Description:
This protein is an alpha+beta fold. Helix content is 38%, strand content 41%. The protein is built from four helices and six strands, in the order ααββαββββα. Strands 2-1-6-5-4-3 form a six-stranded mixed β-sheet, sandwiched between helices. The N and C termini lie far apart (28 Å). The relative contact order is 0.21.
Amino acid sequence: GAVADQRAVVNAFFAAARAGDLAALVELLDPEVVLRADGFAGTPTVLRGAATVSSAALGGASPRAEFSPVLVNGAAGMLITVRGRPVALLAFTVIGGRIAAVDGITDPYRLRSLVS
């Protein structure tokens, strides 16, 4: 199904991030990918382009992070926790087998209300 296909792409993305494989990350991203995150302290972040988003994914990949697949509005998402504490909730838009958009929630208060 659609969600299973999305999930396969999202899982490959996290595997590549964990392995530090920049080339694989770029392949999994639409060249025009947009990453939107609410940011800490309410500073929104918008990143555009496969290279920029790949670099951010590699830079933000904590070896202590644990990934739990979740559904976000019916689409493949990922909850990231460190030592059991939620640090980010990511929703993915997958088009044609590539990630076209990532919407991230990292605000601790919003996360707490969403995943408690």
